[in-house]
Write a structure and sequence with these properties.
The structure is a homodimer. With about 400 residues, chain A is an alpha/beta fold. Chain A contains twelve helices and 16 strands. An eight-stranded mixed sheet of chain A has the order 3-2-1-4-13-14-15-16. At the A-B interface, helix 9 and helix 12 of A face helix 9 and helix 12 of B.
């Protein structure tokens, strides 16, 4: 692997430096690097920002229509309508999961993501088809993006006998994370679904990431149940709850109690900054020590038309929805899509220090906040020391 | 003025047609136009969408930092902090209002806006400086964009004696609209401010557009006061309320009563789809017959970093914030930034019919909803029959 020298870049908006990438890691980071290996490729940064590779911690690349002709949304208003509609459409369209997920993963690369955590639908109708399609994409694009898989019971776990066995097979076969979905609202048995999920995670040493849309006290109760199991099994730091709208719907006293449970058990919270639903208060939670991360959620699929796998735009959405106007606030939103996500996904050596893996994004902008607000085309994306995107075009 | 022939475009996503523009209007619109004047310039639409020129019905082009180096936001949390901070910054920076407003207006043109209604700060410290700067921009860019001016008492009307006289001078000198600002929250005298504003409007035949951030029942009470004065003076169809967060904060019974008042007095409501504040329910109000429109609000100014004068992105924001996922819902949001805005601003001959003024935007997309969701670069913008932007670049 040849070396790369990025000349005159500003890591996270700091002072201008030169960065030498060798062997896939940041080897040197100095005001000026005048001597370097003979096979080094030089890039002029022209004082652009350097960010660590973006982390999309919650996406559904198996089910996207990205790249296909526009398809007006047909789903009914309720969660269960959307689930049913998707299963029907999947039969009708017969899309290739490998092709679709690859197309969206390439878009993510072009927009600067170095890591994805993707939830993959597993059900008794479709078996492991989606899982295998995404596995193929993971393998094909392994040099350009890391993809972490969540075995996700999109159609329910206990209500569809046989699903748990499939989920277990997926975890045994390469999914790093066991998923869950509204243990009360969908499965009608919160303790039951959670016991099943935690059992799989414990047996296989997997992480856990549970979709929790259930609202108000019903959602909050399930956060208590998740914390109890995390504590009992010693899975601190291995469990995440996605969406968790309920954290924005309970009173301050109850929120303080839930926050304590999240911190004590090191349970992370994912929010994509939903358009109209209440969502977890970012500043309050991070200041209390809760680990937060973010993701695209669905991207142009049977659920809805939104999303584009752009984690700078996601930070913009988090900022706009949180009324963040100051640089330090906007950079807090960006933290969810960089260091926050890397931490939850368990990425080692993440960052812009010497010795860190060279997952890098170069963008125009004076401060990271400006990059979030302007969402410019990514000038350059580097993954593990290799150039993978240039001026918004994926090169792999 | 030479003729333009747009070949193979799809007005609002309908069937493919050719459109001949002559003398600044849509002269012909037919499946295929084979004969046309000799001096006609041809453009190949390649089945792209044709939309009417976008309408930014609420922007503040006099105070933008657009085009300047990034300036981290410094304002305090309250409305009054932001007002004070802006007046201080204005003194410190000594920006040229003409230059700043022209730069942002060019951006609006590049993004497909044919009409702006801009609120222009008028106060006793700054006099008519901002007003005169925007007047210069209006004159300079008259062939490329229509700009309607609101004489806006940003620092209060009654609390700053002398402001009303300046507002009156601006209306006498070319502002089509009298502005107002939180008659209760800022001026501490709702009946007093409204009487003053309505008096100016009546004397000069001006329209009215009032910023109303006051929340809950306090805001709702002022909508009642506005309706009473609209009715008393026969100003139906001439009055707008901007923001009107209160319409999302009162109970259903009170909302129904307010809706009746708005419809009876033909008072229009502007929402920009705020990030974190409640905002007027778009479907409910339009279905009740309330006229809605939208705008950018502030664009990268002392108030905050958001905004980019893009009314397709604004329709995206309205859709995302309203949880609009279906084409007909997303197109309702787009309606606020096209026909809805044109109606409130009093644009005659607006639309895509033969005889309409040729204010046109060409964008890629299968349906108008897709264009909103994808927010692509505008392929072509035509104003009054003249090409004013191409591939996102303003040509004037």
């Amino acid at each position: 692997m040849a070396s790369l020298l990025l000349r005159k870049v500003r890591p996270l908006g700091g002072d201008t430096v030169d960065v030498l990438v060798t062997g896939g890691v940041i080897a040197r980071l100095e005001p000026e690097i005048a001597t370097y290996p003979a096979d080094t490729t030089l890039f002029e940064g022209e004082n652009q920002l350097l960010l660590p590779g973006l982390v999309d911690g919650h996406i559904h690349i198996d089910k996207t229509f990205w790249g296909l002709p526009w398809r007006p949304n047909q789903a009914g208003p309720h969660l269960i309508d959307k689930i049913e509609n998707e299963r029907l459409l999947r039969k009708e369209l017969q899309l290739s999961v490998a092709e679709q997920s690859e197309g969206l993963a390439r878009e993510a690369i072009a927009r600067g993501s170095s890591w994805l955590r993707t939830h993959v639908d597993i059900d008794t109708e479709n078996g492991l088809t989606n899982f295998e399609g995404v596995l193929a994409t993971r393998e094909k694009l392994a040099s350009a993006i890391d993809i972490q898989l969540v075995a996700f019971p999109q159609s329910g776990l206990l209500t569809r006998p046989g699903t748990l066995e499939l989920i277990t097979d997926a975890v045994a076969g390469g999914a790093e994370v066991v998923g869950g979905l509204d243990p009360a609202g969908i499965d009608r048995n919160p303790a039951g679904q959670l016991d099943a999920i935690f059992n799989v995670a414990e047996r296989y040493g997997a992480m856990i990431d549970i979709h929790l849309h259930d609202r108000g006290e019903l959602g909050a109760f399930q956060i208590e149940l998740i914390a109890e199991r995390t504590n009992a099994l010693g899975l601190q730091g291995r469990v995440a709850v996605s969406h968790a709208f309920c954290l924005a719907m309970v009173d301050d006293t109850y929120l303080a109690r839930l926050t304590e449970l999240l911190v004590e058990n090191d349970i992370a919270i994912m929010t994509h900054g939903p358009g109209s639903s209440p969502f977890p208060p970012i500043l309050k939670l991070t200041e209390s020590g809760v680990r937060l991360f973010s993701g695209s959620d669905g991207v142009r699929d049977a659920w809805g038309p939104f999303g584009n796998a752009d984690m700078l735009e996601r930070a913009w959405i988090l900022s706009y929805r949180s009324n963040f106007r100051k640089d330090h606030e906007i950079e807090r939103a960006l933290q969810l899509t960089t260091f926050g996500g890397a931490d939850v996904l368990g990425v080692s050596d993440y960052g812009l220090e010497v010795g860190c893996r060279a997952d890098l994004v170069m963008v125009p902008g004076d401060t990271p906040a400006e990059a979030v607000i302007s969402r410019p085309v990514r000038s350059m994306v580097i993954k593990g020391g290799t150039l993978v995107a240039l001026e918004g075009r994926c090169l792999v």
